Amino acid sequence: MKKKLLAVLLCFSLLMLCLGGCSSASRPDDTASVDSSSEEAGHSSSGADETSKTEESNSEDEAGGSSETSSGAESEEQAEQSSEDESQAEDPWFTFEPKVTSVYMEEIFGEEMIQTWYNLVDAALEGKDTFECPDQRTYDWIMGQFPDRCFPVLKVLITTSDEPVENGIAHIVYTTSREEFEEKVADFERLVENTINETMRPEYTDLEKALSLYSYFSYYYSYDYVTLELNPLGEDDYTCAYRFLTQGTGICREIANAYSFLLMEVGVDATVMMGERTDMNHQWSYVRINGHNFHIDPTYALDYPDNLAFFMMTDDRRAEDIFPESFVVTSNYTQEYGAPDYIADDDTFAPIWQGWLDGFDHDTSTLRYHTSNDAGELVYHELNYSGY
Asked: Architecture of domain 201-384 in CATH?
């Protein structure tokens, strides 16, 4: 009798143990949207260094002490945001545009060269072997400068022809079969569309598009220190914006071209800027928003997610680590043929350079960020960016 009783108790204990184990399963945390309304080596700078990573732990401590009411409100907001994000994902607003440039490229290269680039894009997408091109000089500059900046996948799908430009006709040399060409283009278009649809909303201003993409880059891409070590000058055949966007890692020239390209895709005037540091050359992005020029360095942001030290910089701010006399806009084409005298002197965003992004409100044009004081305490701020 005792043996039977012990057997029953043992079975009951095992059953309860199994039930307890099944109820302890966990799930990953949800990710919130930035918007709350509806080369190279040595990436650190004074702005990034002053705000140490202890801020993250301070934020977590403060979050841990919040009330149940606050937690409930946050849960409701997250649920509403999740619903909005799901709705946006189901109804994507952005579609890929194969022919994009910016006001900088138009001002520097001229209308004829821009139109010739469009001729090349149309011909390549149609599978043609030739396109209209006025002369050899135009062809050489287009092949050397435009694919990586304006249609990155073409950088790996076509190459320079040995045949000279004659009678206004230039030749296209494909590096793959037609089937593979079309497959790679289609994959790239989907990649760009997914990135933009996940990152932005159609009502965003140019500033909000640039900020959302800047934050996205800082979290989802990484710096390729291996390539930097092997080839510190970045002078090779494989580094390009296409590699960065498809593999998720790259060096400054790839990162800047990719960032500027995605901004051009959503109608923001953007290009790349080149300059010299004490140790090596560097490339970053240059944008025109609200009629003003700004420097944005997405490369440095990769090491400091949501740090705003390198966002919407003036010439003076950029000159803190890049020699201003070495600035080259878009291409070394400007060194041979000249360029407008671009100036970035709008310091509207100077207050955020010592801060970290908390989010922005589209409806009120309010950017929220935090800094830390001498005691290591977080101090929260707001900046109104109406018009940007």
From this structure: Roll (3.10)
User: Measured between alpha carbons, how far is 361 from 367 in angstroms, rounded to an integer?
Assistant: 7
Apex CA 360: angle with CA 297 and CA 92, to 5°?
Answer: 85
pLDDT at 202 over 70: yes
What tokens appear for 40 in the block? 């190279």
Q: In 3-state terms, what secondary structure has residue 214?
A: helix
Query: Closest Cα to residue 160, out of 148, 149, 171?
Result: 171
The answer for residues whose C-beta is within 8 angstroms of residue 69's C-beta and 6 or more apart is: none
The residue type at 98: P
Torsion angle (degrees, nearest 10) of CA 264, 269, 274, 275: -140
Judged by average pLDDT, the poorest of 41-55, 90-104, 249-263, 361-375 is 41-55
Enclosing H/E stretch for 146: helix 136-150
Contact 123, 154 (CB under 8 A): no
Share of the chain above pLDDT 90, in %: 70
For the chain, give every domain's residue range: 103-182, 201-384
pLDDT at 10 over 60: no
CB 334 within 8 A of CB 314: no
Confidence of residue 346 (pLDDT cuts 50, 70, 90): very high
- Are the C-beta atoms of 170 and 139 separated by less than 8 Å? yes
